[in-house]
Write a structure and sequence with these properties.
By secondary structure, the chain is of the alpha/beta class. The protein has a single domain, classed as 3-Layer(aba) Sandwich (Dihydrofolate Reductase, subunit A), CATH 3.40.430.10. Helix content is 26%, strand content 24%. The protein is built from 7 helices and 9 strands, in the order E-H-E-H-H-E-H-E-H-E-H-E-H-E-E-E. A 9-stranded mixed sheet has the order 5-4-3-2-6-1-7-9-8. A hairpin with a 2-residue loop joins strand 8 and strand 9. The longest helix has 12 residues. It is globular and about 45 Å long. The structure holds 1,4-dihydronicotinamide adenine dinucleotide (NAI) and ligand LIKH6CAM. The site of 1,4-dihydronicotinamide adenine dinucleotide has 28 residues, from strand 1, strand 2, helix 2 and helix 7. Pathway: Cofactor biosynthesis; riboflavin biosynthesis. Keywords: NADP, Oxidoreductase, Riboflavin biosynthesis. This is 2,5-diamino-6-(ribosylamino)-4(3H)-pyrimidinone 5'-phosphate reductase. Belongs to the HTP reductase family.
């Protein structure tokens, strides 16, 4: 039995691979169809996870938007929204973040042992706080804990640093990349995957499962291949 959920990343990037501007300002990259596809993926997941960088930059709610999908979840005995998870080593999630206050459903903040006790206490009033790792969140250990909590299917929605953390730790099964019809530019603008980058011999290989034209861009679905 696998020790972690099935994990997939969904990301929208410009034709030059950027996921936001150099000021980390959110850009509308997806069109209507792609946002709807993303919503469907959200509704089919047990949990949706983002990094604290995304919470601080975008203040996303990560809720399911379609009334029909929310109803379907209700009819299946689920809450309207999947659990929403923030990877937040130092417990910096603002108490009025949309992810904590909008919509029903479980909230989980993944922290490390370096998180201040008073911040953890405050967050506990609004979310389940799970600790994994010493200085930063140990993502592999966190995945094990999420699986033990019943999470079988986990959607990761970025940003660039968390995508690197998950991919470099070998914790991702599939990736959806939507490539939109814009060029954002900027050497410091976040890309789909930032972090330290793989050494040449360890560059990650993918298998293309599908590609289709969507809105004014292209959607690709990739399987992450195990290291040889
Ligand atoms: N176009 C898109 O699909 C999306 C774009 N974004 C963009 O991404 C940007 C945010 O990305 P980032 O600044 O890179 O922040 P991020 O959202 O990737 O969060 C990274 C932070 O997570 C925390 N963390 C704790 N443990 C970690 C670990 N083991 N590995 C990795 N991170 C760990 C660290 O504090 C780290 O700085 C924003 O500009 C946002 O607009 C975010 C989501 C989707
Ligand atoms: N899939 C996708 N396409 C785009 O064009 C985007 N700008 C984003 N951005 C991310 O979506 C999240 C917003 O979620 P809510 O609407 O608040 O539920 C946020 O994290 C953006 O970074 N995604």
């Amino acid at each position: 039995m696998t020790e972690r959920p099935f994990v997939f990343i969904n990301s929208a990037m410009s034709a030059d691979g950027k996921i936001s501007t150099k000021e980390r300002k959110q850009v509308r990259i997806s069109g209507r169809k792609d946002f709807d596809r993303m919503d469907s993926l959200r509704a089919s997941s047990d949990a949706i996870m983002v990094g604290i960088g995304t919470v601080l930059a975008d203040d996303p709610s990560l809720t399911v938007k379609s009334q029909g999908r929310k109803l379907e979840r209700k009819q299946a005995g689920l809450e309207e929204n999947p659990a929403r998870i923030v990877v937040d080593s130092k417990a910096r999630t603002p108490l009025d973040a949309d992810i904590l206050i909008k919509g029903e459903g479980m909230r989980i903040v993944l922290v490390s042992r370096s998180a201040p006790a008073d911040r953890i206490e405050k967050l506990r009033e609004k979310a389940t706080v799970v600790c994994a790792g010493d200085d930063e969140v140990d993502l592999a250990a966190a995945m094990g804990k999420l699986k033990a909590m019943g999470m079988k299917r986990l959607m990761v929605e970025g940003g660039a640093t968390l995508n690197w953390g998950m991919l470099s730790a070998g914790l991702v099964d599939e990736i959806y990349t939507f490539i939109g019809n814009l060029v954002i530019g900027g050497r410091t603008a976040p890309t789909f995957v930032d972090g330290d980058g793989f050494p040449e011999k360890e560059i990650l290989k993918l298998d293309l499962l599908g590609a289709e034209r969507m809105d004014e861009g292209i959607l690709c679905r990739w399987k992450v291949l195990p290291e040889p």
